[in-house]
Amino acid sequence: MTVTIYDVAREANVSMATVSRVVNGNQNVKPATRKKVLKVIEELGYRPNAVARGLASKKTTTVGVIIPDISNSMYAELARGIEDIATMYRYNIILSNSDQNENKELQLLETMLGKQVDGIVFMSDVISSELLYEMKRSPTPIVLAGSIDDSNAIASVNIDYYGAAYEAMKKLIDNGHTRIAFVSGLFSSKVNKDKLKAYRQALEDASIEVDEQLVIECDNSYDEAIEAVNTLAPHKPTAYFVSNDEMSIGVIHGVEANGQKIPEDVEIISYENSKLARMARPMLTSVALPLYDIGAVSMRLLTKYMNGEEIEENQVILPYRIEERASTKNA
Amino acid sequence: MTVTIYDVAREANVSMATVSRVVNGNQNVKPATRKKVLKVIEELGYRPNAVARGLASKKTTTVGVIIPDISNSMYAELARGIEDIATMYRYNIILSNSDQNENKELQLLETMLGKQVDGIVFMSDVISSELLYEMKRSPTPIVLAGSIDDSNAIASVNIDYYGAAYEAMKKLIDNGHTRIAFVSGLFSSKVNKDKLKAYRQALEDASIEVDEQLVIECDNSYDEAIEAVNTLAPHKPTAYFVSNDEMSIGVIHGVEANGQKIPEDVEIISYENSKLARMARPMLTSVALPLYDIGAVSMRLLTKYMNGEEIEENQVILPYRIEERASTKNA
DNA sequence: TTGAAAGCGCTAACAG
DNA sequence: CTGTTAGCGCTTTCAA
């Protein structure tokens, strides 16, 4: 039925070994032989079976990607970075959504290892100790993309979330605000914890008392951000530091619904800088997260591990910047 | 090094066949034996090798997904639908971006077939005849998700793009508009061609002359949509039919920048109904595309083909609806 | 430069 | 209920 390497060998009057050599670009084949084999391959429509190849060579040229939710634009952007570099290095990607559910993450890890992936890129806001344990004993290299493991046991690619948040807060403080609200995503996420820490520290460093009522935890959605604004209203914030662009748009709408002007009455700094930031009115000043790059660099790092290269530093920190737009008063 | 089925068999004093049976949940194993084997599996940390299994069984339990761009929210939504159903049926997904580049699509198809995927979900605005030819001779089932092949040779899941566009236009016409602009994505896309056809037909059916100057083709981006509004301004449209939510937001901003009010001076109907539609101000009336469902149903259909089930109808059409919001004047 | 042969780890008859 | 035995299609020594 399907044509195998054996069929090609017979048809071309050579051994399977020789066919294998030409298929794999091995130079030890006489040009004439190569040509003959290639011709037969063409005629028979031979297509190498990657599964058999994987079994024999113990390499599948596919990597696993465990991601919270591909329909979330942040992760989609990360995934694109991963995939582009994977393609560049001739790897395919097995992509699975975990919904940040630990059991699912554990099970996905298991499935992927079973499928003999050559490496894994893992994303999650929280890395449980059990997960960490499994990752450490993984026979296959793993890198965390935009995800933090405090023990630094697993390679990872991130930005300085704390530093970025601190700088954003600093800007708001420098603009004279003392009532700055923080509309955050879930604090179960290490990244949000870092932002909170920066929020507090920046305030303290400026001798501004931290008012816990100005801190609100939401589920990252537009709707909850609007609600957050209403909850915060009695506490009269004059500036908002917001965890992502979607929520920032919610904040804008909430604030405007209450009759306040941005940035005249209220300033906002977001944290993501997706294309939404430019589609908002006013356009959002935002910490620019290099999501695509985090994905790309993670995958690149993974290729090094897969090649058995020695890595100098397994924790890579990418640069961020703050994109100033109309939601803040700028110099 | 790694523990194989053979190690387990030896340790448990049974044959590999028996181990294979318990691993695969075959009922023909005495409970005591099963228990013994399970225990050894546990002790040894045995993990079945899916590659070997795939080679022996000729099934990989993985399906290929060829998608234009996962970082585009429309496709990400589709992908999520696909993945969820795949997971439900225990399939994994190999995901690749094609950027709608025909050569890449062709090559991806080849790669996935080489990897022995059990099925493929394919997405693309344009299905070239060469692609169609390759798909037809694919040894593995393929279904098109949200993509059209006029010949109906390949199974597909879509909505009635034409009908949806016609209905949207009808609504605008019923609201009294005679100068309706169409801000479209690329006409190389079959879906956009259908919308254009509906645009014209709806106008004709209402005895309104079609003014080609009111039709603008853009690249689906926010920025080009704003530009489109400016290009259209001299032709004084009083309503806009727009190809997707992102562009609709561009239209809103373009229109407002010109001092017009929505929906008082200008009405807008979008075509997508992503969460952006609710995040826009005014909120967008929009044709609701069931992207997630298209993905899910495609995958479900694929499972049927992979199981060799007989399919009554290979062209499935899902329902759409129009979500009325503030960008149009409603009854 | 080429071929022979031994696996890779598992499934799937088939036999008992 | 369990074991034996062929492969699945390819890579990879090892010889020649």
UniProtKB/TrEMBL annotation, chains A, B:
The keyword Lipoprotein does not apply. Signal peptide: none annotated. InterPro entries: CcpA (IPR006377), HTH_LacI (IPR000843), Lambda_DNA-bd_dom_sf (IPR010982), Peripla_BP/Lac1_sug-bd_dom (IPR001761), Peripla_BP_I (IPR028082). Residues 3-57 form the HTH lacI-type domain. Keywords: Activator, DNA-binding, Repressor, Transcription, Transcription regulation. It comes from the Bacteria. Transmembrane segments: none annotated. The keyword Repressor applies. Global transcriptional regulator of carbon catabolite repression (CCR) and carbon catabolite activation (CCA), which ensures optimal energy usage under diverse conditions. This is Catabolite control protein A.
